[in-house]
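Schema walk-through. Below, the input block comes first and the output block second. Nothing else is stored per chain. Lengths vary across the set, and this one has 293 residues.
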Amino acid sequence: MPFVKGYKRSWKSDDSYNRNHLLPSFGKKHLDEITKHDVIAFQQKMRSKGLALGTCNRCLIQLRYALNLAVRWEIPGISKNPTQGVPLFADPHKKERFLTEVEAQTLYKAVQESVNPMLQYIIPMLILTGARKREVLDAKWEEFDLERKQWRVSVTKAGKPRYVPLSDGVLQMLTTMPHDDNQWIFPNPKTGKPYVSIFYSWDTARIQAGLADVRIHDLRHSFASFLVNAGRSLYEVQKILGHTQIKTTQRYAHLSQDTLVDAANVVPFNISIQMVVGIPTLGLSGGANQAGL
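--- output ---
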């Protein structure tokens, strides 16, 4: 935990998983006493308690990471990670929600009517950059270089700064929104500081737009979906979203049906017709035979 606290903003979640799940099962064991059988039994025990698949998987990921650190740091008593080869639970109910362009426009109209005056800027910023909610809420003017069209997110989920390219839409919004010398870009008008939560105003807006099933994090998914469906590579999406591993980005590898049709239509029309006409006649006669059907 001291190591995680040094770089991870969400370390409190890790601490909760430790106290509630990992330490009760493994806290009294020496490193060389933890076996793969223990890890699998731990997984099954959590499922038998009715815990969500996501919670079970998160605990396994955290245990695996902790033991990997022990191996990397050459802690006495461990030479191999006992979680190696233990798979995560497949979650068939997990789904990704992506906004369509029409839904995005409908949502934008709803946030413009929100009683929260900053929501009309916060939500478009999330959709147009793919940034995480906390990154946007905590954004400072000093982090933005409008000439170079980039935003330096100083503190990210991974604990390392990253650079987000700014589209023309974002630049236009930033230059037209109110700015009263506050260091924060999206401050709460009542406190002058970043919002602790925008859930109430967000929840009201999404329901008004008929999008009650859309979560704020789905705006990040939608940004990635728009990029992929526009023909951008997964490498580009990975870099913009700040993923450290390409497998995290591959969840966005789906393409819309229109995009697939466009891809199929790359084959020249005249070549396609010639190939069809040239198909063997299969023993047909008459006009059908002459037409190559």
